[in-house]
Write a structure and sequence with these properties.
Elements lengths: L2 E6 L3 H13 L3 E7 L5 H8 L3 E5 L7 H11 L4 E6 L4 H9 L4 E4 L4 H12 L4 E2 L1 H11 L10 H11 L4 H8 L3 H15 L4 H12 L2
Parallel strand pairs: 1-2, 1-3, 3-4, 4-5, 5-6
Helix pairs in contact: 7-9, 7-10, 8-9
Length: about 210
């Protein structure tokens, strides 16, 4: 059974190109098209697509509006977002609202066909550049180091288990100077204990 695909795009040439692509593929069936998502609910009720190929930037009612409506009323329909941009905020808004995938319009025709098949089969599709953005979003972000070079040295040695006196000896500093550095470390990191400072070091500074 062929996959029924509905296309939303405000660019007529793009719609015609995608329609021709669908008609050349025996696995796909062109279901219909729209220039925006003003009538998205009626479109879904009329054409019953399996997959919607959704442009993001359209006048009056854009692809994010359409995505939200489709996933609310027809959660079984797969929505594959497409755009000329790899805008981070829009990527995550689409993902949060149930998009099955996100491709760029510059992706090859073969990649677009593959993406439609993959989302229909239950997969999650992303252009490689977008996938990197998503990975970066979910990885813990390291904070900037507010410490001076000497303060960082002191904290590193303390994190390795050296005592204040051992740090002073190793860096050829007085005990009082080390204490002053530690006071500044607490102030700059907004922590109240050495344990918190060391935790910051291992989370954000340790290589």
């Amino acid at each position: 059974m062929s996959i029924k695909v509905f296309i939303y795009d405000d660019n007529e040439a793009r719609r015609d190109s995608l329609k021709a692509l669908m008609e050349l593929s025996p696995e796909l069936q062109y279901a219909g098209e729209g220039i925006n998502c003003l009538n998205v609910i009626a479109d879904m009720q009329t054409y019953f697509p399996d997959v919607v190929l959704m442009d993001i930037n359209m006048p009056d009612a854009d692809g994010i509006v359409g995505l939200k409506s489709i996933k609310k009323e027809f959660p079984h329909i797969k929505v594959l977002m497409q755009t000329v941009f790899d805008d981070t905020d829009k990527i995550f808004e689409c993902i949060r609202n149930g998009a099955s995938g996100y491709i760029l319009k510059k992706d090859s025709p073969q990649r677009i066909l593959q993406a439609i098949q993959e989302v229909y089969d239950g997969g999650a599709v992303m252009n490689p550049g977008i996938a990197l953005k998503v990975l970066g979003y979910f990885q813990p972000q390291k904070k900037e180091n507010p410490l001076s070079g000497r303060e960082t040295q002191v904290l590193e040695l303390l994190a390795e288990g050296l005592s204040y006196k051992m740090v002073a000896d190793k860096l050829f500093l007085s005990f009082n100077t080390v204490n002053t550095h530690i006071k500044h470390i607490h102030e700059k990191l907004h922590v109240s204990s050495l344990g918190e400072a060391i935790a910051f070091y291992y989370k954000n500074l340790h290589q």
